[in-house]
Amino acid sequence: MADKKAQLIISGADPVDLPVMSGTLGPDVIDVRNLTSTGVFTFDPGFMSTASCESKITYIDGDKGILLHRGYPIEQLAEKSDYLETCYLLLKGELPNTQEKAEFVDTIKNHTMVHEQLKNFFNGFRRDAHPMAIMCGVVGALSAFYHDSLDITDPQHREISAMRLIAKMPTLAAMVHKYSMGQPMMYPRNNLGYSENFLHMMFNTPCEEKPISPVLARAMDRIFILHADHEQNASTSTVRLAGSSGANPFACIAAGIAALWGPAHGGANEAVLKMLDEIGDVANIDKFVAKAKDKNDPFKLMGFGHRVYKNFDPRATVMKKTCDEVLAELGINDPQLELAMRLEELARKDSYFVERNLYPNVDFYSGIILKAIGIPTSMFTVIFAMARTVGWISHWQEMLSGPYKIGRPRQLYTGVTQRDIPDDRG
Ligand code: CMC
Description:
This protein is mostly helical and 426 residues long. The chain contains 17 helices and 6 strands.
């Protein structure tokens, strides 16, 4: 295939040839790396048209509603795989065989506990602190405990840090929950599966250990799979950017958690439930839909729309099915859940939402499932962070495994031009 080129003509100057790079899937990208020699930069706030890196991990076709991890469709992973296998796939590029899986699960189980002294950090937080605030702090603090794996130039250190993060995130998340409830923190149980163990640490107490429902454990596992990675989203790009400066993996993941917290990103699952609270009753839906359509009103229907999926979110399709299963298992008859279903129905018919391709996204249904399982709303984004940790660390690994540069965007300066401080400022 002949080398593709783009030509850039800046009024009057000679044309500049820019190489065009092709991936295995998706649009070509124009390589603008050498543009600085011409004295201009590209301008793309919000990265609407910018590929920030080359990656082999995840592919999304937003128009067709396709999400592939290492080539495998998300629907197949949700159906035929489990979260730890998906972690292995994201990190290593292939699904594990039986022996590889057993070894991987063993390694993860080996790292589920956190240093006893880490518990002391929790006491510094108010009991009513937002769980994401505590998560940012305690995950960042891991770098003060695991000095033995912080050499980011050593592939083995990077691997151990990745395993520690995947193994310890559920333990930390459950500790945050127990702290806010004022209940004793539960130790992980390594005879349980990853998702089962998480629900055990969340809901059991030292005085009462109930068996975990397999339907709920499977639903939790699906939520983890569906949130495991999503290419260069805001939090993953944050992790890559932090990592590009040579920061340690725990600090980078803490940065990712901070970026995920925002309501336009991972905070949306929590925002969905808050919005349902605000709507209050099916009778008010029309009023809130009108508010969402009003350009002078900042209100948006949380859990609707996506930057990349402009047709449907394939994760939402799987999540809706899981949502139905969970509601059936629990026999739930919750007016708020009925309200959510009615809102979905109305928005799907409304021309404003249809014309703008605003469909319920993954967070719309995951919020409902998590509520049904009994997880408090303020913990929703923590669960997203737990699941996304593998995606973040896989991208961090990918970046550090090859040549990379510190991320340093430029800007279009529109401030005051150079001036002098007057001797007499009055
Ligand atoms: N409710 C009402 N109107 C909306 C909504 C919404 N949820 N989302 C987008 N719009 C409108 C928006 O006002 C704009 O209208 P117009 O063209 O008339 O100006 C049009 O749809 C395009 O929206 P946009 O803001 O340009 O789209 P974007 O790609 O910049 O934003 C988004 C995507 C996800 C930030 C946005 O849809 C949103 O804020 N949704 C609600 C929050 C949410 O559910 N976020 C979770 C995303 S999925 C989890 C994840 O991957 O992080």
